[in-house]
Amino acid sequence: MLVQFEVNGNPVEVEVEPRLTLADCLRHSLRLTGTHVGCEHGVCGACTVLVDGAAVRSCLMLAAQADGAKVVTVEGLSLEEGLTPLQASFRKHHALQCGFCTPGMITTAHALLTKEPDCDADRVRDVLSGNLCRCTGYISIVEAVLDARSAYARK
Amino acid sequence: MTIKPFVGQPIERLEDLPLLRGRGQYVDDLARDDMLHAAILRSALGHGRIRSIDTTRARELPGVHSVITAADLGTPVPCVPMRLQPMPEFEAFAQPVMAGNKVRYVGEALAMVLADSAAIAEDALSEIAVDIEPLAAVPNHAVAVADQTLLFEEKGTNTAMKFRAVLGDAASAFQNAPYRRRETFSTQRNTALTMEPRGLLCEWDAASGKLKVFGAAKVLFFNRRVIARQLGLAEDSIEMVECHVGGSFGARGEFYPEDFLIPFAARRVGRPVKWIEDRREHLMTMNHAREAACDVEIACERDGTVLGLRGHAFVDVGAYMRTNGAVGARNIAQFMSGAYRIPNIDIDVALLLTNKTPVGTYRGPGRFETDFFRERLFDLVARDLGIDQVDFRRINLIKEAEIPYAVATIAPFESKDELDSGDYRVTLDRCSAEFGWAEKAKLKGRSIDGRYHGTALSCFIEGGAAGPKETARLVLETDGTITVYIGSSGVGQGLETAFAQITADAMAVPIDRINNVFHGSTSYVSDGYGSYHSRSIVMGGSAVLDAANKLRTVMCAEAARRLNCGAAEVLLADGRAAAPDGKSISWAELAPEPLSAEGFFLNKKHTWAYGAAAAHVSVDAKTGHIQLLDYVAVENCGRIINPLTLKGQLIGAIVQGLGGAVMEHLIYDEQGQLLTGSLADFLLPTAADFPTIRGVLIESHPSPINPLGAKGAGEGGIISVGGVIANAVADALSSLGVEPRDLPLSPSRLWHLIQDAHKAREVCR
After folding, report:
1. pTM across the whole model
2. What span, in angstroms and rounded, lies between the C-alpha atoms of A126 and A137?
3. CB contact (8 A) between residue A34 and residue B678
4. In terms of CA atoms, which chain A residue is nearest residue B29?
5. By CA distance, what is A136's nearest residue in B?
6. What would the DSSP string read from start to end of A17-29?
7. How far is the C-alpha of B727 from the C-alpha of B7, rounded, in Å?
8. What is the DSSP code string of B514-573?
């Protein structure tokens, strides 16, 4: 079946099997491999993307369900050169080691800070608790997100 | 111009730039136009005899290229070899890369489908008809010991091996001891659980007879030797390529059955073959670890001086002996004494086969388990003797003057080891001070707002720097920058940054003159040993120093020729080579063609980082829930290369350990069925679970066994956690008489312990 949606601001048209997940569509059909697949059952959060602004597990969503939606992946939250303030904060706080969970952390944190730039540490922990990281122990990730709040502050 | 050393600075990681922007290249990010996808049919039974495997219907499915079973692999079917402790006694228990006659664990490979897509390959798995005669299973070490049901009938036993750790004369020490106590403890089956599942992409070029293996990790050169032998290829016709690696923690990158199957398939079909495991497969096929029990006895003076330790330990190694499946058992026996002076030791450890996934190393292998056993025992003893738990440890810590200190020797392979440097009391005192032990310990057993509070502290040592060798190659490029090639491998720990720092200092250049750090390919250096036993920095970093010396010699010789002076007279500084007469040329001019030098480091000894950890918990006696209120770890790793990444390793390891202490548990039933096959059943720590962890690094006592003075690091944080948390829980619940002896301390298990304690007290009344 033919599915049309927008990825990182660009319209795309993909022929997919109805059973194809949005994660596999992004990764393998559209070759946007920044979105990672860690569990395929909605627990680890590595595949988190933004669908119409909401952080969504792309392994639990079919590509067909994205028809007409605006999808943003970690690639769409990145600059051609250099790092965004959120990414720079991750680097400064050493909030990544192997980097596999990182795209999901970035998309989840971006969705949170966009809506709640004043969130406190408990709120950050609560929201990030849906994204598993095996390397960092999370403390540096929470610090990085808190430190990036100023870049999202309401003007 | 003098350049401030880069070693020791918290340099932000070079690795982060692609990883933060979705530009990482993990193995599943690779694709080839004509590639086939592999899916593997896995045994649903823990123990059984294979009657038949019928692949006819699977083969007929559109999009299926072929189906491979053990019958296609030749006779005998190749086996997973032992990499560490490769003793002939283990060979009979090696795992065939595909099951032919018997299955011995849930998840064992039975057949492999190659198809046009991963989805079709998985569809085809359900079309394979497998007939397996179920056999009684060996579900745990207690059943294994009885040898009633056997995994390998022809061997007549489920005991793969026994190790024995001996120091001094335990029998005499116990005979005369004024105080003795005997206890049993256990730790649960766990796994490293890397966030990236395993995967491989293999390409076979029939014309040149060359094989490329993408997705290799950890020990590329060893794995290449194995594949070369098993496929009958020359080693140099195989290139192993490491992509970005989503964590190892000891488990990823070892030689698994798929490391034969996928290269074999690529050569057989003459097309690229890709295989990516799913999370369910990961939980039942990647090395398990940690499942151990012990029955140990301690002997002490009345003043708390430990005289001896003896007893038996049991390690459930699962269904086969895989590459490093004996390491945990060895460490449990050899390092039960930890950072403490225990002059008389006699501990044996049995490696017992069960119908479960085979085990391998997982961060702090054996050390996490044995530290839990010992530290629990110490707290029980300290209380018996009326000695403060921190004082008890201080009394028995190995003193600086006693180092180098020889630990117990392991039989049958006479493995000796000695602790290299340090003042263990300093880390204990610092930990006690940072934690605020004097104040917090007063909370012992207090109930505040319905939660009981308790504290604990323990000391640890962390081994690193396994030999025998590492290789580094430095290249002066034509633009005057330096490129580093290294035989160590990256698994997410930040290797490139650390090696760039070491190289910049060794060549006396700013770090931005380090062009790139290449690791993780068998084509970069002549030989490499990879990343395990916290060896990369010590071994690879020391090899970089050697390569830098050699490159400087090459550069001086070249400069001398150009500048008409003696090589010894050339001064290499500020990116120029200068002669005594003032003439000079830039490094770029020095290298119209790249100049290169390979360096090595050979080593038979180990480094020993050391430290202490303390925890403050509160326990809800109504639910068994443990809240971690504070956790402080202090570690001394000798010379620090990058405090930012080192601290990241320390904190990350602690949180992994907390998962192992209170939640993570691979559970099997009596038939050997895995009951925790998803991340909804196998619980990992989340961002909300343990918000207060503090790590403190102390830099002193550089290791005397390597020119960097560094010590292997990254595992230390995990080692103490089980013991410290269990002791803090026991401290909190001391008024109830709860004494945890088994991990994990899940809410349900702790609730049952509390209920049992209540009942016992009622009986006493």
Report:
1. 0.98
2. 14
3. no
4. A33
5. B652
6. -TT-BHHHIIIII
7. 37
8. EEEEEESBTTTSS----S-TT-IIIIIHHHHHHHHHHHHHHHHHHHHHHHTS-GGG-EEE
Q: What pLDDT is attached to residue B762?
A: 83
Which of B645, B655, B678 lies closest to A94 in CB terms? B645
With a CB cutoff of 8 Å and minimum separation 6, the contacts of B695 are B632, B633, B634, B635, B647, B650, B651, B654, B717
Q: How far apart (Å, rounded) are the C-alpha atoms in residues B751 and B738?
A: 10
What digits encode the pLDDT tens for the residues B640-666? 999 999 999 999 999 999 999 999 999
Distances (CA, A) of B419 to A139, B495, B605, B700: 32, 25, 9, 15
Mutate to test the interface with A, among B14, B17, B20 (most CBs of A within 10 A): B20
Question: Each residue of B185-195: pLDDT tens digit?
Answer: 999 999 999 99
Q: CA-to-CA distance for B500 and B136, rounded, in angstroms?
A: 55
Structure tokens given for B680: 């909804």
Cα–Cα distance, B416 to A47 (Å, whole number): 47
3-class DSSP state for residue A2?
Answer: strand
Buried b (16+ CB within 10 A) or exposed e, B481-512: bbbbbbbbbbbbbbbbbbbbbbbbbbbbbebe
Neighbours of B1 (CB within 10 A): 7
Cα angle A69, A71, A76; round to 5:
150
**Residue whose pair of structure tokens reads 């580094």 in the numeric block:** B472
- Residue partners of B2: CB distance under 8 A and separation at least 6: none
CB count in 10 Å sphere of residue B436: 14
Which residue bears the tokens 């005057």?
Answer: B480
Residue of B19, B29, B676 to mutate when probing chain A, most A C-beta within 10 A = B19
Answer yes or no: do B22 and A35 touch at CB < 8 A: yes
Residue of chain B with shortest Cα separation from A138: B687
Out of A35, A102, A126, the one facing B19 most closely (by C-beta) is A102
User: Which residue, B403, B473, B459, B465, is CA-closest to B431?
Assistant: B459
Show the 3-state SS of A82-111: CCCHHHHHHHHCCCCCCCCCHHHHHHHHHH
| Chain B residue closest in CA terms to A128 | B687
pLDDT at B565 over 70: yes
**Interface ipTM > 0.95:** yes
